[in-house]
């Protein structure tokens, strides 16, 4: 009986540890991975790319004018919009790719083995589908849009440098009128 009790407690402890591990790696609001996890993925992918020549691209996404969503419709509606976008982003990528909430209304997609052309197509599909989302709690005619910067990681490059280049492409998308995809210069 003592051993059976210990086995049950050990199993309960393993389950609890698994849930805690999942909480550390996922964004509580959206359910997608979080910044900590995606930075680890980027480091691993960078190492793999350097050793095995399998590249990856980064899509840095930012929901346009998101502060206005919270201000106009409230934070509960803003949270719904974030969750819906996260689900949409997870739905447009392959099962070998990654999506994470990077912070606030920013998300990062890591597309494994994809070149700029394929990544731009994925980013544009996400952009178009975002503008078609129906966000409960918003008024008729409200359209959520996203700007996306895309870059292919370079061999031997620091993850921070690749992210910075994707961020610059994102900024160019914002400056260029928002609701667009910009691929970083090679």
In brief:
The protein has helices at 2-25, 35-52, 66-73, 75-92, 116-131, 159-175; strands at residues 56-63, 98-103, 106-112, 146-152, 181-183. It has 186 residues and is of the alpha+beta class. The radius of gyration is 19 Å and the shape is flat.
- The total of helices stands at 6
What percentage of amino acids are in beta strands?
15-25%
Largest sheet: 5 strands, mixed
**What string, H for helix and E for strand, traces the elements in order?**
HHEHHEEHEHE
Oligomerization state of this entry? single chain
Instruction: Indicate the mean pLDDT.
Output: 93
The overall strand count is 5
Span from first to last CA?
66 Å
- Sheet with most strands: strand arrangement: 2-3-1-4-5
Please, could you describe this protein's structure?
With 186 residues, the chain is α+β, with helices and mostly antiparallel strands. It contains six helices and five strands; from the N terminus they run ααβααββαβαβ. A five-stranded mixed beta sheet has the order 2-3-1-4-5, with helices on both faces. Helix 3 packs across helix 4 (75-92) and helix 4 packs antiparallel against helix 5 (116-131). The relative contact order is 0.17.
Question: Mind sketching the topology for me?
Answer:
Blueprint lengths: L1 H24 L9 H18 L3 E8 L2 H8 L1 H18 L5 E6 L2 E7 L3 H16 L14 E7 L6 H17 L5 E3 L3
Parallel strand pairs: 4-5
Antiparallel strand pairs: 1-3, 1-4, 2-3
Helix pairs in contact: 3-4, 4-5
Relevant terms:
single chain; 186 residues; alpha+beta; 5-stranded mixed sheet; 5 strands; 54% helix; flat
